[in-house]
Design a protein that fits this description.
Layout: E1 2-5, E2 22-26, E3 28-33, E4 36-39, E5 51-53, E6 57-59, E7 75-78, E8 81-84, E9 93-95, E10 98-100, H1 108-111
Antiparallel strand pairs: 1-2, 1-6, 3-4, 4-5, 7-8, 9-10
Length: 123
């Protein structure tokens, strides 16, 4: 298993700075040459060529704690895009006279009536 540096991978984020530095981890499908490996990429990445130079790969480091392995949270596929399920919203804020959530959840304002809502008066 290896991590892939996101240097040459186009992201859907608004800025490169907000994207993760490493993608994966991905299993190695086969060794193409002394300097390149063919990775098994997810089906959503079919537009990306799966062979990468070793400078763009980093081996996954195993934990020094015995019997400990943290699995990534399960992903959800929506319209052929990978999404992550939100368990709850912890807070909402008014910034620059706009309401900001990390994610919108049904019945948030009925659970937290004192939080600013979309129809709150502007400060």
């Amino acid at each position: 298993m290896v991590w892939l540096f996101s240097k040459n991978i186009k992201s859907t984020r608004t800025t490169k700075k907000l994207s993760g530095r490493l993608l994966g981890p991905f299993p190695i499908f086969k060794k193409v040459s002394t300097h390149a490996y063919h990775l098994k990429l997810p089906s959503q990445w079919k537009s990306i060529h799966p062979v990468f130079h070793i400078a763009l790969l980093e081996p996954v480091k195993t934990s020094t704690i015995p019997n400990w392995c943290q699995e990534p949270p399960p992903s959800i596929i929506i319209e052929e895009e990978e999404e992550w399920e939100v368990s709850q919203i912890l807070d909402s804020n008014l910034k620059r006279r706009k309401l900001w959530y990390s994610e919108l959840v049904k019945d948030f304002h009925s659970l937290y009536p004192n939080k600013p809502g979309p129809n709150s008066s502007k400060a």
